[in-house]
From TrEMBL:
Gene3D superfamilies documented for this protein: MetI-like
SUPFAM superfamilies documented for this protein: MetI-like
Record-linked InterPro entries: AA_ABC_transptr_permease_3TM, ArtM/GltK/GlnP/TcyL/YhdX-like, MetI-like, MetI-like_sf
Keywords: Cell membrane, Membrane, Transmembrane, Transmembrane helix, Transport
PANTHER family according to UniProt: INNER MEMBRANE AMINO-ACID ABC TRANSPORTER PERMEASE PROTEIN YHDY, MEMBRANE COMPONENT OF AMINO ACID ABC TRANSPORTER
Protein's recorded name: Amino acid ABC transporter permease
GO CC annotation, single: ATP-binding cassette (ABC) transporter complex
Source species: Pelagivirga sediminicola
Main location: membrane
Biological process per Gene Ontology, one example term: amino acid transport
PROSITE patterns in the cross-refs: ABC_TM1
GO molecular function: transmembrane transporter activity
Family as reported in the entry's similarity comment: Belongs to the binding-protein-dependent transport system permease family. HisMQ subfamily.
Protein backbone atom coordinates (compact mmCIF):
# COMPACT_ATOMS: atom_id res chain seq x y z
CA UNK A 1 0.00 0.00 0.00
CA UNK A 2 2.83 2.39 0.92
CA UNK A 3 4.60 1.60 -2.35
CA UNK A 4 1.36 2.30 -4.30
CA UNK A 5 0.89 5.67 -2.55
CA UNK A 6 4.51 6.60 -3.26
CA UNK A 7 4.13 5.68 -6.93
CA UNK A 8 0.92 7.77 -7.09
CA UNK A 9 2.66 10.82 -5.60
CA UNK A 10 5.61 10.35 -7.95
CA UNK A 11 3.23 10.19 -10.90
CA UNK A 12 1.47 13.38 -9.81
CA UNK A 13 4.79 15.20 -9.41
CA UNK A 14 5.80 14.06 -12.89
CA UNK A 15 2.55 15.37 -14.37
CA UNK A 16 2.90 18.72 -12.57
CA UNK A 17 6.52 19.02 -13.69
CA UNK A 18 5.58 18.27 -17.29
CA UNK A 19 2.64 20.68 -17.39
CA UNK A 20 3.95 23.66 -15.43
CA UNK A 21 7.72 23.40 -15.03
CA UNK A 22 8.92 21.74 -18.23
CA UNK A 23 11.09 24.72 -19.23
CA UNK A 24 12.47 27.91 -17.66
CA UNK A 25 9.81 30.00 -19.40
CA UNK A 26 6.97 27.76 -18.23
CA UNK A 27 8.42 27.74 -14.72
CA UNK A 28 8.51 31.55 -14.51
CA UNK A 29 4.99 31.86 -15.96
CA UNK A 30 3.64 29.22 -13.59
CA UNK A 31 5.19 30.92 -10.55
CA UNK A 32 3.70 34.28 -11.57
CA UNK A 33 0.24 32.74 -12.13
CA UNK A 34 0.33 30.85 -8.83
CA UNK A 35 1.39 34.03 -7.03
CA UNK A 36 -1.49 36.01 -8.56
CA UNK A 37 -3.91 33.21 -7.70
CA UNK A 38 -2.65 33.08 -4.11
CA UNK A 39 -3.04 36.86 -3.83
CA UNK A 40 -6.62 36.68 -5.09
CA UNK A 41 -7.49 33.85 -2.70
CA UNK A 42 -5.93 35.68 0.26
CA UNK A 43 -7.74 38.91 -0.60
CA UNK A 44 -11.09 37.16 -0.81
CA UNK A 45 -10.53 35.21 2.43
CA UNK A 46 -9.39 38.35 4.24
CA UNK A 47 -12.48 40.25 3.07
CA UNK A 48 -14.97 37.44 3.62
CA UNK A 49 -13.65 35.91 6.87
CA UNK A 50 -10.61 37.40 8.62
CA UNK A 51 -11.61 41.09 8.52
CA UNK A 52 -15.37 40.56 8.34
CA UNK A 53 -18.01 41.53 10.89
CA UNK A 54 -20.43 38.69 11.69
CA UNK A 55 -22.51 39.98 14.59
CA UNK A 56 -25.17 42.67 14.35
CA UNK A 57 -24.95 43.43 18.07
CA UNK A 58 -22.76 46.51 17.52
CA UNK A 59 -24.93 47.81 14.70
CA UNK A 60 -24.02 49.06 11.22
CA UNK A 61 -21.29 51.32 12.63
CA UNK A 62 -19.00 48.36 13.29
CA UNK A 63 -19.29 47.33 9.64
CA UNK A 64 -18.43 50.79 8.37
CA UNK A 65 -15.32 50.87 10.54
CA UNK A 66 -14.15 47.40 9.42
CA UNK A 67 -12.20 46.57 6.27
CA UNK A 68 -13.97 43.31 5.53
CA UNK A 69 -17.42 42.06 4.67
CA UNK A 70 -20.47 43.06 6.67
CA UNK A 71 -22.12 39.72 7.35
CA UNK A 72 -23.87 41.45 10.25
CA UNK A 73 -26.61 42.41 7.81
CA UNK A 74 -27.36 38.70 7.38
CA UNK A 75 -27.43 38.28 11.14
CA UNK A 76 -29.86 41.17 11.41
CA UNK A 77 -32.08 40.47 8.39
CA UNK A 78 -31.91 36.72 7.71
CA UNK A 79 -35.55 36.20 8.63
CA UNK A 80 -36.64 38.82 6.13
CA UNK A 81 -34.49 37.20 3.41
CA UNK A 82 -35.71 33.66 4.06
CA UNK A 83 -39.36 34.33 4.95
CA UNK A 84 -40.22 37.66 3.35
CA UNK A 85 -43.49 39.18 4.56
CA UNK A 86 -44.68 35.95 6.17
CA UNK A 87 -45.95 36.62 9.73
CA UNK A 88 -43.09 36.46 12.21
CA UNK A 89 -44.90 34.21 14.67
CA UNK A 90 -45.61 31.72 11.85
CA UNK A 91 -42.06 31.44 10.51
CA UNK A 92 -41.88 27.86 11.76
CA UNK A 93 -44.52 26.92 9.20
CA UNK A 94 -42.56 28.43 6.34
CA UNK A 95 -39.34 26.74 7.48
CA UNK A 96 -41.10 23.39 7.91
CA UNK A 97 -42.64 23.73 4.45
CA UNK A 98 -39.18 24.19 2.92
CA UNK A 99 -37.97 21.13 4.85
CA UNK A 100 -40.88 19.13 3.38
CA UNK A 101 -39.68 20.06 -0.12
CA UNK A 102 -36.13 18.98 0.75
CA UNK A 103 -37.38 15.61 2.04
CA UNK A 104 -39.58 15.23 -1.05
CA UNK A 105 -36.59 15.89 -3.29
CA UNK A 106 -34.36 13.44 -1.41
CA UNK A 107 -36.99 10.70 -1.60
CA UNK A 108 -37.38 11.35 -5.33
CA UNK A 109 -33.64 10.74 -5.75
CA UNK A 110 -33.74 7.26 -4.17
CA UNK A 111 -33.93 4.52 -6.87
CA UNK A 112 -36.43 2.51 -4.81
CA UNK A 113 -39.10 5.14 -5.55
CA UNK A 114 -38.40 5.37 -9.28
CA UNK A 115 -41.82 4.39 -10.54
CA UNK A 116 -44.79 6.43 -11.63
CA UNK A 117 -47.00 5.68 -8.63
CA UNK A 118 -44.36 6.36 -5.95
CA UNK A 119 -43.10 9.55 -7.56
CA UNK A 120 -46.67 10.82 -8.00
CA UNK A 121 -47.50 10.12 -4.34
CA UNK A 122 -44.29 11.76 -3.12
CA UNK A 123 -44.64 14.89 -5.24
CA UNK A 124 -48.38 15.40 -4.87
CA UNK A 125 -48.33 14.57 -1.16
CA UNK A 126 -45.29 16.77 -0.54
CA UNK A 127 -46.76 19.64 -2.53
CA UNK A 128 -50.10 19.50 -0.69
CA UNK A 129 -48.29 19.37 2.67
CA UNK A 130 -46.19 22.37 1.64
CA UNK A 131 -49.25 24.27 0.47
CA UNK A 132 -51.36 23.71 3.59
CA UNK A 133 -48.42 24.57 5.85
CA UNK A 134 -47.98 27.85 4.01
CA UNK A 135 -51.67 28.63 3.54
CA UNK A 136 -53.03 27.36 6.84
CA UNK A 137 -56.71 27.03 7.57
CA UNK A 138 -56.43 23.47 8.95
CA UNK A 139 -55.40 22.01 12.35
CA UNK A 140 -55.87 25.40 13.97
CA UNK A 141 -53.31 27.18 11.78
CA UNK A 142 -54.20 30.74 10.85
CA UNK A 143 -54.76 31.53 7.18
CA UNK A 144 -51.91 33.41 5.50
CA UNK A 145 -52.79 34.96 2.15
CA UNK A 146 -50.49 34.26 -0.81
CA UNK A 147 -49.64 37.96 -1.06
CA UNK A 148 -47.81 37.63 2.27
CA UNK A 149 -45.73 34.67 1.17
CA UNK A 150 -42.14 35.49 0.40
CA UNK A 151 -38.47 34.71 0.62
CA UNK A 152 -37.03 31.27 0.05
CA UNK A 153 -40.34 29.51 0.68
CA UNK A 154 -42.04 31.39 -2.16
CA UNK A 155 -39.13 30.67 -4.49
CA UNK A 156 -39.36 26.96 -3.66
CA UNK A 157 -43.15 27.02 -4.09
CA UNK A 158 -42.87 28.62 -7.55
CA UNK A 159 -40.22 26.10 -8.66
CA UNK A 160 -42.04 23.02 -7.38
CA UNK A 161 -45.39 24.17 -8.78
CA UNK A 162 -43.85 24.92 -12.17
CA UNK A 163 -42.28 21.46 -12.41
CA UNK A 164 -45.31 19.67 -10.99
CA UNK A 165 -47.65 21.25 -13.55
CA UNK A 166 -45.18 21.56 -16.42
CA UNK A 167 -43.75 18.03 -16.51
CA UNK A 168 -47.03 16.16 -17.26
CA UNK A 169 -47.93 18.91 -19.73
CA UNK A 170 -44.56 18.53 -21.46
CA UNK A 171 -45.07 14.76 -21.83
CA UNK A 172 -48.51 15.38 -23.33
CA UNK A 173 -47.14 17.97 -25.77
CA UNK A 174 -44.28 15.67 -26.78
CA UNK A 175 -46.68 12.80 -27.50
CA UNK A 176 -49.04 15.06 -29.45
CA UNK A 177 -46.10 16.45 -31.43
CA UNK A 178 -45.21 12.95 -32.67
CA UNK A 179 -48.82 12.05 -33.51
CA UNK A 180 -49.54 10.34 -36.84
CA UNK A 181 -52.34 12.84 -37.51
CA UNK A 182 -50.78 15.87 -39.29
CA UNK A 183 -53.25 18.42 -37.96
CA UNK A 184 -52.57 17.37 -34.33
CA UNK A 185 -48.78 17.31 -34.67
CA UNK A 186 -48.80 20.55 -36.69
CA UNK A 187 -51.03 22.44 -34.23
CA UNK A 188 -48.96 21.21 -31.29
CA UNK A 189 -45.78 22.29 -33.06
CA UNK A 190 -47.21 25.79 -33.57
CA UNK A 191 -48.12 26.04 -29.88
CA UNK A 192 -44.68 24.86 -28.74
CA UNK A 193 -42.75 27.08 -31.13
CA UNK A 194 -44.94 30.10 -30.30
CA UNK A 195 -44.31 29.73 -26.56
CA UNK A 196 -40.59 29.13 -27.04
CA UNK A 197 -40.27 32.22 -29.22
CA UNK A 198 -41.43 34.48 -26.36
CA UNK A 199 -39.34 35.57 -23.36
CA UNK A 200 -40.52 34.17 -20.05
CA UNK A 201 -40.94 37.69 -18.69
CA UNK A 202 -43.47 38.45 -21.44
CA UNK A 203 -45.46 35.31 -20.61
CA UNK A 204 -45.43 36.08 -16.88
CA UNK A 205 -46.60 39.63 -17.51
CA UNK A 206 -49.36 38.43 -19.85
CA UNK A 207 -50.67 35.81 -17.40
CA UNK A 208 -50.39 38.04 -14.33
CA UNK A 209 -51.61 41.37 -15.75
CA UNK A 210 -53.24 40.96 -19.17
CA UNK A 211 -55.15 37.68 -18.71
CA UNK A 212 -57.68 39.06 -16.14
CA UNK A 213 -58.91 41.56 -18.76
CA UNK A 214 -60.02 38.76 -21.11
CA UNK A 215 -61.38 36.33 -18.52
CA UNK A 216 -64.49 36.58 -16.34
CA UNK A 217 -63.89 37.33 -12.68
CA UNK A 218 -64.74 33.80 -11.56
CA UNK A 219 -62.08 32.32 -13.89
CA UNK A 220 -59.21 34.77 -13.36
CA UNK A 221 -58.00 33.34 -10.02
CA UNK A 222 -55.11 34.65 -7.96
CA UNK A 223 -52.23 36.42 -9.68
CA UNK A 224 -49.64 34.04 -8.21
CA UNK A 225 -51.32 30.96 -9.67
CA UNK A 226 -51.78 32.61 -13.07
CA UNK A 227 -48.08 33.46 -13.14
CA UNK A 228 -47.15 29.91 -12.12
CA UNK A 229 -49.38 28.57 -14.90
CA UNK A 230 -47.51 30.77 -17.40
CA UNK A 231 -44.16 29.59 -16.04
CA UNK A 232 -45.32 25.96 -16.27
CA UNK A 233 -46.40 26.47 -19.90
CA UNK A 234 -42.99 27.94 -20.72
CA UNK A 235 -41.24 25.04 -18.97
CA UNK A 236 -43.47 22.51 -20.75
CA UNK A 237 -42.72 23.94 -24.20
CA UNK A 238 -38.96 23.53 -23.75
CA UNK A 239 -39.20 20.22 -21.89
CA UNK A 240 -41.51 18.79 -24.56
CA UNK A 241 -38.82 19.27 -27.20
CA UNK A 242 -36.25 17.71 -24.86
CA UNK A 243 -38.47 14.66 -24.31
CA UNK A 244 -39.26 14.42 -28.03
CA UNK A 245 -35.54 14.41 -28.75
CA UNK A 246 -35.15 11.58 -26.25
CA UNK A 247 -37.94 9.67 -27.99
CA UNK A 248 -36.21 10.02 -31.32
CA UNK A 249 -33.20 8.27 -29.79
CA UNK A 250 -35.24 5.14 -29.05
CA UNK A 251 -34.96 2.56 -31.90
CA UNK A 252 -38.21 2.46 -33.84
CA UNK A 253 -38.03 -1.33 -33.97
CA UNK A 254 -38.87 -1.55 -30.27
CA UNK A 255 -42.20 0.19 -30.65
CA UNK A 256 -42.99 -1.77 -33.81
CA UNK A 257 -42.21 -5.02 -32.02
CA UNK A 258 -44.51 -4.01 -29.16
CA UNK A 259 -47.28 -3.26 -31.65
CA UNK A 260 -46.85 -6.65 -33.31
CA UNK A 261 -47.16 -8.32 -29.90
CA UNK A 262 -50.42 -6.51 -29.23
CA UNK A 263 -49.12 -4.20 -26.50
CA UNK A 264 -51.55 -1.34 -25.98
CA UNK A 265 -50.58 2.26 -26.66
CA UNK A 266 -50.58 3.30 -23.00
CA UNK A 267 -48.30 0.44 -21.99
CA UNK A 268 -45.98 1.06 -24.96
CA UNK A 269 -45.57 4.66 -23.90
CA UNK A 270 -45.31 4.00 -20.17
CA UNK A 271 -43.01 0.98 -20.15
CA UNK A 272 -41.01 1.17 -23.37
CA UNK A 273 -40.83 4.65 -24.84
CA UNK A 274 -40.84 7.12 -21.95
CA UNK A 275 -38.25 5.39 -19.69
CA UNK A 276 -35.71 5.31 -22.52
CA UNK A 277 -36.64 8.81 -23.67
CA UNK A 278 -36.05 10.25 -20.20
CA UNK A 279 -32.75 8.41 -19.97
CA UNK A 280 -31.63 9.86 -23.31
CA UNK A 281 -32.84 13.33 -22.32
CA UNK A 282 -31.45 13.27 -18.77
CA UNK A 283 -28.64 15.86 -19.18
CA UNK A 284 -30.91 18.34 -20.93
CA UNK A 285 -33.68 17.73 -18.38
CA UNK A 286 -31.38 18.47 -15.45
CA UNK A 287 -30.22 21.61 -17.23
CA UNK A 288 -33.85 22.68 -17.73
CA UNK A 289 -34.53 22.17 -14.02
CA UNK A 290 -31.56 24.36 -13.16
CA UNK A 291 -32.72 27.09 -15.54
CA UNK A 292 -36.25 26.94 -14.15
CA UNK A 293 -35.04 27.34 -10.56
CA UNK A 294 -32.95 30.37 -11.47
CA UNK A 295 -35.79 31.92 -13.49
CA UNK A 296 -37.96 32.13 -10.37
CA UNK A 297 -36.17 35.43 -9.72
CA UNK A 298 -38.15 36.95 -12.62
CA UNK A 299 -41.29 36.89 -10.45
CA UNK A 300 -39.95 40.01 -8.75
CA UNK A 301 -40.89 41.95 -11.91
CA UNK A 302 -44.60 41.21 -11.46
CA UNK A 303 -44.65 42.12 -7.79
CA UNK A 304 -43.88 38.95 -5.82
CA UNK A 305 -41.66 39.00 -2.77
CA UNK A 306 -39.45 36.01 -3.61
CA UNK A 307 -35.95 35.64 -2.23
CA UNK A 308 -34.35 38.26 -4.48
CA UNK A 309 -37.01 40.84 -3.59
CA UNK A 310 -36.58 39.91 0.08
CA UNK A 311 -32.86 40.51 -0.26
CA UNK A 312 -33.48 43.93 -1.80
CA UNK A 313 -35.70 44.81 1.14
CA UNK A 314 -33.10 43.49 3.61
CA UNK A 315 -30.47 46.03 2.63
CA UNK A 316 -32.78 48.69 1.17
CA UNK A 317 -34.39 49.62 4.49
CA UNK A 318 -32.85 50.94 7.67
CA UNK A 319 -29.12 51.58 7.99
CA UNK A 320 -27.86 48.63 5.93
CA UNK A 321 -27.98 50.22 2.46
CA UNK A 322 -24.21 49.92 2.07
CA UNK A 323 -24.22 46.12 2.58
CA UNK A 324 -25.84 45.09 -0.71
CA UNK A 325 -22.81 43.03 -1.83
CA UNK A 326 -23.04 40.78 1.22
CA UNK A 327 -26.79 40.29 0.78
CA UNK A 328 -26.41 39.34 -2.87
CA UNK A 329 -23.50 37.03 -1.99
CA UNK A 330 -25.70 35.27 0.58
CA UNK A 331 -28.54 34.87 -1.93
CA UNK A 332 -26.06 33.64 -4.55
CA UNK A 333 -24.85 31.02 -2.06
CA UNK A 334 -28.43 29.78 -1.61
CA UNK A 335 -28.92 29.52 -5.37
CA UNK A 336 -25.55 27.78 -5.68
CA UNK A 337 -26.45 25.21 -3.02
CA UNK A 338 -29.66 24.24 -4.83
CA UNK A 339 -28.27 24.32 -8.36
CA UNK A 340 -24.95 22.61 -7.58
CA UNK A 341 -26.70 19.82 -5.69
CA UNK A 342 -29.06 19.30 -8.60
CA UNK A 343 -26.26 19.26 -11.17
CA UNK A 344 -24.17 16.81 -9.12
CA UNK A 345 -27.13 14.50 -8.75
CA UNK A 346 -27.66 14.68 -12.51
CA UNK A 347 -24.03 13.71 -13.05
CA UNK A 348 -24.48 10.79 -10.64
CA UNK A 349 -27.52 9.58 -12.58
CA UNK A 350 -25.60 9.77 -15.85
CA UNK A 351 -22.78 7.65 -14.43
CA UNK A 352 -25.23 5.19 -12.89
CA UNK A 353 -27.11 4.72 -16.14
CA UNK A 354 -23.91 4.40 -18.16
CA UNK A 355 -22.78 1.65 -15.81
CA UNK A 356 -26.13 -0.09 -16.25
CA UNK A 357 -25.58 -0.28 -20.00
CA UNK A 358 -22.23 -2.05 -19.73
Amino acid sequence: MAMTDQMGRTGMLAVLRERYFSSPGNTILSIICFAILALIVWTVLDWAIFSAVFSAAKGPGACKAADGACWAVIDARWQLILFGLYPHEEHWRSGLACLVVVVMTVLSCIPYFWNGRSISIIWIGGFLTFYFLMKGGIFGMTVVDEQRWGGLSLTVFIFVSTVLVGMPLSILLALLRRSDLPWISGLTGIIIDSVRSLPLLTILFAFAVVLPFVLPDWASGDKLYRAILGSALFFAAYQAEIIRGGMQGVPTGQEEAAKSLGVRYFHRIQRILLPQAFKNALPATINQFVITFKETSLFIIIGFFEILASGNAAYGTGNWTFAFVEVYAFIALIYFAFVFSLSRYGAFLERRMDVGDQ
